[in-house]
Amino acid sequence: MAAITAALIKQVREETGAGMMDVKKALTEADGDVARAKEIIRAKGIQAAGKREGRKAQEGTIASTVVVADGTATGYAVELNSETDFVAKTPKFVEFADTVLADAVKADAATVDEVLAAPAANGETVKVEIEEAAALFGEHVKIGQVAKISGPHVEIYAHKKSVEMPPSIVAMIATDEAGAAVAHEAALQISAMGAKWLTREDVPADVVESERRVATEKSLAEGKPEKIVPKIVEGRLNAFFKENVLLEQAYVKDPSKTIGDLFKEVGGKALAFARLEVGKGDEN
């Protein structure tokens, strides 16, 4: 039997766009004959994964879990994208998302690149595993957003937009032990209101400066007296913080208090949070 070398596999993958495992099987069946292997791939209807990569994959689901070790809780969330919600809601796709999440947890991955490089159950990397999945599902499949947060307590809220669909929004928040008492309410808030930062100190300086310039220009364009513009600008900046900073947002269930007030009431602290929504990350 002819040796199935890495160079041979690479050649057929580049020429067909098929996944690594499909190429291996085809070459084995063809006893190393490249032309015959390509015929086998065509005959089996294995679509070129490379042809799918240009297609947008903005549907999908988000798999998430909390792992507790040595007194520290760590929340992991991985967005797996497909092209259509028809594929996204199938049990096989949801199960595959859970498999990718498990691989990410084992590798303690915190970024997309780390997830893709993680060892997979099939002996390859998650990147290769996803390429194989594209052939299985017949659509472009990719990793979207990835999040990892840690603390004494981590709460996760997974939101489904409809009963038949898997989670499309996942909110995670890390708190101290006292803060765990209101962590679920905070996670609901994150899911619903989409805060971007935990505290106003976390807002990047360039973002604050940009908002300040916009507020100043808008106030002057409205014909406000120059002497009161600085005060108006500060008011508009505060409104920006109240909209985008979690601890300054009005609590949706009781707007008379903020999320920060909730934590003060129980003597707890929020340490970090993450919010992932299907299709809202950077397009790849």
TrEMBL record:
Involved in Mg(2+) ion dislocation from EF-Tu as annotated region, ranges: 84-87
Record-linked Pfam families: EF_TS (PF00889)
Localization per record: Cytoplasm
Subcellular location, principal: cytoplasm
PROSITE patterns xref list: EF_TS_2
CDD domains: UBA_EF-Ts
Domain Translation elongation factor EFTs/EF1B dimerisation: 76-280
Keywords carried by this UniProt record: Cytoplasm, Elongation factor, Protein biosynthesis
SUPFAM superfamilies the UniProt entry points to: Elongation factor Ts (EF-Ts), dimerisation domain, UBA-like
Superkingdom in the source lineage: Bacteria
Entry-linked InterPro entries: EF-Ts_dimer_sf, Transl_elong_EFTs/EF1B, Transl_elong_EFTs/EF1B_dimer, Transl_elong_Ts_CS, UBA-like_sf
HAMAP family: EF_Ts (MF_00050)
Function: Associates with the EF-Tu.GDP complex and induces the exchange of GDP to GTP. It remains bound to the aminoacyl-tRNA.EF-Tu.GTP complex up to the GTP hydrolysis stage on the ribosome.
Record-given protein name: Elongation factor Ts
Native organism: Bifidobacterium choloepi
